Amino acid sequence: MLQGVYRREGTVFQMYSLDMVSDGVINIVSGEADFVAKTMTFKVSQLKQAVIKKGA
Fold first, then answer.
1. Distance (Å, whole) CA 52 – CA 18
2. What is the pLDDT of residues 11-53, one digit of tens each?
3. Is residue 38 one of the residues assigned to a domain?
4. Is residue 54 assigned to a domain?
5. What gap in Å lies between CA 46 and CA 56, rounded to an integer?
6. Can you give the pTM of this predicted structure?
7. d(CA 14, CA 32)
8. Integer Cα distance of 51 and 26 in angstroms
9. Can you tell me whether residue 37 is helix, strand or coil?
10. Angle, CA 36 vertex, CA 31 and CA 37 arms, to 5°
11. Residue 31, pLDDT score
């Protein structure tokens, strides 16, 4: 599930998100969705591998 921000221009939504998956990889996601034309495109890039410390 993406959680981020979006901006709507007419029927097109521009979406941006930073997400960390369970293995510690941080991804930046950008995409565009047009729910009228039923199209969606996304680009995902890995920013870095996060260090996850267990226990404190």
1. 17
2. 999 999 988 877 778 889 999 999 999 999 999 998 876 666 6
3. yes
4. no
5. 27
6. 0.67
7. 5
8. 10
9. coil
10. 70
11. 95
